[in-house]
Amino acid sequence: MRVIGEEFVGAMATLDLETAQGREIRVQKGHEDLADLPREIGQHLFAWWAPEDGHLVAKA
């Protein structure tokens, strides 16, 4: 995955990621949870989470 965007709202940070297949994934965490991650646009990283922590949102 690679970082394609970042936004801060209050105590939450949103990191927009893009998979190798071009799908967008949005990660929302507290600032301190993302503090040590590479967040520069274009930066590649590996992301994982427990299945119960993921939520699919249908396109409008």
How are the elements arranged and paired?
Elements: E1 2-9, E2 12-18, E3 24-30, H1 31-34
Antiparallel strand pairs: 1-2, 2-3
Question: In brief, what are we looking at here?
Answer:
With 60 residues, this protein is mainly beta. Helix content is 7%, strand content 37%. Strand 1 (2-9) and strand 2 form a beta hairpin.
Q: How would you characterize the overall build of this protein?
A:
The chain is mainly beta. The chain has one domain. It contains one helix and three strands, in the order βββα. Strands 1-2-3 form a three-stranded antiparallel sheet. It is globular and about 25 Å long. The termini are far apart. The mean pLDDT is 88.
Question: What oligomeric arrangement do these chains adopt?
Answer: single chain
Overall structural domain count: 1
Mean pLDDT equals: 88
Give the tally of β-strands: 3
Query: So what's the overall shape?
Result: globular
Gyration radius, to the nearest Å?
A: 12 Å
Largest sheet: 3 strands, antiparallel
- Amount of beta strand: 35-45%
Features:
single chain; 60 residues; mainly beta; 3-stranded antiparallel sheet; 1 helix
